[in-house]
Amino acid sequence: MSFLFEPPAVPSLPIIGSDAHFPMHRIYCIGRNYAEHAKEMGAQAVSRANPVFFMKPADAIVAGGGDIPYPPATHELHHEVEMVVALAKGGRDIDAARVPDCVFGYGVGLDLTRRDLQAAMKAKGLPWDVAKGFDASAPVSSLRTVGDIGHPAHARLSFAVNGEVRQDTDIADMIFAVPEIIAELSRLFELKAGDLVFTGTPAGVGPLLRGDRVSAELHGIATLEGRIV
Fold first, then answer.
1. Which residue, of 75, 134, 136, 157, is most buried by count of CB atoms within 10 Å of its CB?
2. pLDDT at 36 over 90
């Protein structure tokens, strides 16, 4: 087989303690997975019957920290810190009890959001892909393998801007736990090795400015540091 032009490189993430990289397939995200964040975004209740999912392009990844470009077409770039789950196996209609066998490892990431564009789209009842799926909208740390840390049920998740903590929670406060998230996603998509799942953000989201230094941490597991440029 020949290609008309050189195919782009496969996006990937570094793995802590390994020279190998984790090749990316897709990025899935769940919204409104912490009650206090749902409230700050105007939702008074979250239905466990209808989890909210959206996607980002795999090449929106910014791997392992460093410079994060401020995107065009917005004056309101917001941070949303999240635990990230990396899958080594996939499938359809995965039972929640089998989900741990599918997980390769964990990291911490930012679901960057053009909040002004999101608000404008929501007000018109339109899809808000442009607010979530832009270039470099998914900075993610190096991954820590399940073999190193197991499957954390409790871990502090925090985010700071220029040394000031803005988001701080425990992942135990998630409305949908990791097995539930993966199981629900597998009813909508055929999940595959290389998929990343962003598991939702706690309260405290807010604006980022050019020059800001950011630090996201899933304590004891992964750290992501960078600068908005």
1. 157
2. no
